[in-house]
Amino acid sequence: MATLAAWRFATAGGAARASVALGGLREEWLVPTDSALVEWRAGQRRPHTRRLTPDDAGALGDGFWSLLFGLTFFLPLLGAAVGASTGSAAGSLADVGIDDHFLNRVRDHVTPGSSALFVLGPDAAVDQVRGALGGTPRSVLITTHLDAAHVDALRAVFGT
User: Fold this and answer.
1) Rounded to an integer, what distance in angstroms lies between the CA atom of residue 121 and that of residue 97?
2) Is the dihedral of CA 19, 21, 23, 25 positive or negative?
3) What is the DSSP letter of 36?
4) Whole-model pTM?
5) pLDDT-derived band of residue 155, with 50, 70 and 90 as boundaries?
6) Structural domain boundaries enclosing 141
7) Does residue 146 contact residue 3 with C-beta atoms inside 8 Å?
8) Which CA distances in Å does 40 have to 84, 94, 103?
9) CB distance 97 to 1 below 8 Å
10) Tally of structural domains, the chain
11) CB of 82 closer than 8 Å to CB of 75
12) DSSP class of residue 79?
């Protein structure tokens, strides 16, 4: 099993500070994990996103994170102008275990003035991150679980 986890922080810089702990853990892992962060400064219309994972074997490419963040933060802003295409793209993610419930929870929690650190990897690796970030004040954890077939499908489409 794998987990897609998002730690939401109450400040726009919280996720960047937390990513330092993630960098230290990454060297210990023998299995591929992927990560990205979202920073949404107060007063800005949209968040700034960036992938943290280096381009190495097994990593998902920018396309996955762009699709995930686009569906979560950018397409809802377009509303009815996008129409059915938004639903079909979101449905494609649901086919690989990332459902509307996860996207909506992230959208509801990551708002202007906050940030989020995203990690996709085996449950054990995500548990290590959870342990490292456990003492982080004012963070909210949002997760969804993906089975091996879902992860394989993501890697087939978005793998580098």
Assistant:
1) 13
2) negative
3) E
4) 0.85
5) confident
6) 2-158
7) yes
8) 27, 25, 16
9) no
10) 1
11) yes
12) G
